[in-house]
């Protein structure tokens, strides 16, 4: 009898749960599913936005064009380099800043507020500010470096990929590191202080405590922060578009997509590029999920 009552209660709770989440699921499907399906359909069509050429079925021609385009593969390469370097630097610096902010010292509250300032500034605004700062004529970076005799002459930082990519990575690190630090700080605050006290009693140094206590216990939070930042980096658009204006030799996958859709008015190729980017991100999420699951089982 008691077992049957428990089963009936579970069934009612399940029906209530579905009743409560159904409106949200419907809204999500309406907002996300329909545009996604539409993009997938357009990716198999020859669809110019010139108002002259009528849409027609193209099969996999759009995908074949993208995969045979050297500009696409160059955009993939730029995106991969940017993602790997920026995410690694942001993770390391974010962990260092989080550990400092988690320590007890005078002015800790001010530090926690100050480190959020770069993250609070909109990306377009911060990118434009840094674009002015590294300008080869009136940029403050060139002025300071030449006055300190660290540079023999002013450099056009954004003129070539050899200097433009490191500058853009540096700007992204400056912008996104506070986000990593904020997430990791939350993870550090969940670590019981008793573990550090026990480690000190056992004679463990600060370095030993970091490797044996801090890093293992903050790893789940670090993995969550990594996936957020990696997803943002893989679809980066604004910082590249603002700082280098969508140059072909500095285009990311998202910039390449924008060029096909907006500049060339080709909704077919633009849609197929969007689908490819979506698949790449989905594959990353699947790999991350499996890795995190095997790491903590």
| Alpha plus pi helix count | 13
Oligomer: single chain
* Total count of domains: 1
Rounded mean pLDDT score? 86
Number of strands: 2
* Percent of sequence in beta strands: under 5%
**Cα-atom radius of gyration:** 25 Å
If classified by CATH, what would the architecture be? Orthogonal Bundle
Please name the CATH topology. MetI-like fold
Q: How would you classify the helix and strand content by structural class?
A: mainly alpha
Morphology call: flat
CATH class: Mainly Alpha
Largest beta-sheet details: 2 strands, antiparallel
Uncertain segments of ≥5 residues (pLDDT<50)? none
The rounded distance between the terminal residues' Cα atoms is 37 Å
Approximately how much helix is present in the residues? Answer: over 70%
Strand adjacency order, main sheet: 1-2
CATH superfamily: MetI-like
The arrangement of helices and strands along the chain is HEEHHHHHHHHHHHH
Your description of this structure?
The chain has 297 residues and is mainly alpha-helical. The protein has a single domain, classed as MetI-like (MetI-like fold), CATH 1.10.3720. It is 76% helix and 1% strand. It has 13 helices and two strands, in the order αββαααααααααααα. It has helices at 2-42, 61-68, 70-102, 108-114, 117-120, 123-133, 140-147, 161-189, 193-201, 206-234, 238-244, 253-263, 267-296; strands spanning 45-46, 56-57. It has a two-stranded antiparallel sheet with strand order 1-2. α3 (70-102) runs parallel beside α8 (161-189). The chain starts with a helix and ends with a helix. The mean pLDDT is 86.
